[in-house]
Amino acid sequence: AGAIALGAVGSTSILVTLFTGILLGLASGVNALTALHIGSKDDEGLKRTVHTAVIICLAGGILITVFGILFSHNILALMNTKDELIDGAVLYLLLGMPALGLYNFGNAVLSAAGDTKRPLYYLAFAGVVNVILNLFFVIVCHLGVAGVALASMISQFISAFLILRALLTGK
Q1: N or C: which end of the chain has fewer CB within 10 A?
Q2: Is the dihedral of CA 147, 153, 157, 159 positive or negative?
Q3: Separation of CA 78 from chain center
Q4: What letter would DSSP give residue 171?
């Protein structure tokens, strides 16, 4: 896709780490509370925790997206990101954050219940889809940063869908 596309995606690493860290922090709290309620056999507390946590984690992803839309251009400029990279970086950065929030929520709940394999399988599958879609969108469709962003977003929503399906159906 070229040096500009690669630079745009690479210039987001600090912000991606920050935003992912926020969502992982939320998920860690979900994990601890879920494990507490499972361990104490408090079904009502577990139900309240899970229902509240899904809303908070989704809202966290949405808020990060909105924050990013409003401020990431300025933050990247403050970080001395080259002007020609900023628009591509902003495009890549934000689209999958709500899905990332939901995946981390589901991972926290399943892990608290002792199921660490399925979240890993779902993430691995989504990662393979991401690689395939990156190649398709960048090489075949010539979409550059937009293709990488689209592939990442789709794979994040796939992992979120799979984990939510597991929580809702037990499969």
Answers
A1: C
A2: positive
A3: 24
A4: -
